[in-house]
Amino acid sequence: MALFFDRSWFEAKLAERSLSQRVMAAAAGMSEADLALVFKDQRELSAEEVGIFADLLGVPPAQIAHHAGVSTPVPGQDDLAGRLLALEKKVAALEAEIARLRGR
């Protein structure tokens, strides 16, 4: 379980980028219900999720970990290629979902 989740900080960062929690959850490949647990401080972020949220919000992973109260290891710069690949996969999945929804 997370040690302390700074909900207001995350909400402000999302607002700065005009993003929603739905987008945040989708980018990390998690359900909105799982992200809601994170925001309620009832679920800790994984190192991979920390990296994805850092990319999404444009801040260093250590800053995400700090505001999420994460006690798990934070991904380092050596993991950048893997995080970028994972993020590209998520973006492709989001684009496919948008295309599907527009086809309705």
Comma- or semicolon-separated keywords:
mainly alpha, 104 residues, 6 helices
How much is the average pLDDT? Answer: 85
The helix tally amounts to 6
The span between the termini is 40 Å
Low-confidence stretches: none
Computed Rg: 14 Å
Helical proportion?
55-70%
Query: For the report, how would you describe the main beta sheet?
Result: none
Number of strands: 0
Tertiary shape? globular
Estimate the strand proportion.
Answer: under 5%
Please trace the helix and strand order, writing H or E for each element.
HHHHHH
Class per helix and strand makeup: mainly alpha
Task: Please sum up the structure shown.
The protein is mainly alpha-helical and 104 residues long.
Descriptive account of the structure:
- This protein is an all-alpha fold.
- It has helices at 7-16, 21-28, 32-39, 47-57, 61-68, 80-102.
- It is globular.
- It starts with 6 loop residues before the first helix and ends with a helix.
Helices, strands, pairings?
Blueprint: H1 7-16, H2 21-28, H3 32-39, H4 47-57, H5 61-68, H6 80-102
